């Protein structure tokens, strides 16, 4: 999976992005929007569809779009509508992805960035940092 900014919602724009990022033989699962129809004609990808007006999981193939729908839902929860505007979306998506990949270790990365400091103890109520300073 990858995230990118889509300049417009035309079939041509989406197909260009798919051609740039998807490798030959990739399985592309999408809803039944007609703009995705050319994917099957390209012959480079396996194009599977889910008709959301009927179901959320294709009963014949078992394919679904739940992962990407959940990811987009998480992005919308993690970024307010003001943070999803064109001028700042790239930086905010990078930060959101970084936080998701490093969940549970954010403080470690923060304190590793402090020159000469290291964490000596962490518990649920206290964080002790040793900066190597003696008095």
From TrEMBL:
InterPro entries noted in UniProt: IS1016-like_transposase, Tnp_ISXO2-like
Pfam family, one: DDE_Tnp_IS1595
Name of the molecule in the record: ISXO2-like transposase domain-containing protein
Alphabetized PANTHER family for the sequence: DDE_TNP_IS1595 DOMAIN-CONTAINING PROTEIN, SI:DKEY-17M8.2
Entry superkingdom: Eukaryota
Domain (ISXO2-like transposase) ranges: 2-77
Species: Stentor coeruleus
């Amino acid at each position: 999976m990858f995230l990118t900014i889509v300049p417009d919602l035309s079939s041509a724009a989406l197909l260009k992005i798919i051609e740039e990022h998807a490798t030959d033989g990739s399985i592309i699962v999408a809803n039944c929007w007609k703009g995705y129809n050319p994917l099957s004609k390209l012959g480079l990808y396996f194009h599977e569809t889910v008709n959301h007006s009927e179901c959320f999981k294709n009963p014949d193939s078992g394919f679904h779009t739940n992962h990407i729908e959940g990811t987009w839902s998480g992005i919308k929860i993690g970024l307010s509508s003001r943070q999803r505007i064109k001028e700042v979306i790239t930086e905010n998506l990078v930060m959101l992805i970084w936080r998701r990949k490093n969940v549970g270790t954010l403080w470690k990365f923060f304190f590793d960035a402090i020159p000469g400091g290291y964490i000596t103890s962490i518990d649920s109520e206290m964080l002790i940092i040793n900066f190597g300073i003696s008095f």
